[in-house]
């Protein structure tokens, strides 16, 4: 385990989790470089692999990459079409996979990647089939990538719905509880500063 100061590339810095991550990581002495599609120090759309290449060139060497970004469509299964499945893959899987693949040349030899999945990978809800599919794909990728990228590490954080978002999303997760974003950020700290790889931290 190491708690040395690191340079961390934070993807999705403007969201609920991204803000909590920024506060938590900076409080622990890390230098956090923020990335977003429309805001942040570096503005890049990670759903486009060519923009990920440009992002890494602009960012320079980093010790850790943490992702808090990903979008998927929600609708009844019978209404899904091929474009919806593609949107889920592009919005949550492809960008995170490419962050790792392309990041191997830019992240420190013993650095880390932490990706975001979600509770629907193992606790599905109505209208959440695409999210379950995308989250499951990311988790499978993490386990597979960990075998190949050592001594670099890769983990995923799989949170329940955020407590701060219950007013908007709570009705979709009846009886499932919630988790504060600050607690989710602690799981990212475990991934960034710890020694484990190939793990999915469920909260």
From TrEMBL:
InterPro entries: NAD(P)-bd_dom_sf, SDR_DHRS6-like, SDR_fam. Keywords: Oxidoreductase. Gene3D superfamilies: NAD(P)-binding Rossmann-like Domain (3.40.50.720). CDD domains: Lin1944_like_SDR_c. Pfam families: adh_short_C2. It comes from the Bacteria. The keyword Oxidoreductase applies. Belongs to the short-chain dehydrogenases/reductases (SDR) family. NCBIfam families: PRK07578.1 (NF005754). This is Short chain dehydrogenase. The lineage of its organism: Bacteria, Bacillati, Actinomycetota, Actinomycetes, Kitasatosporales.
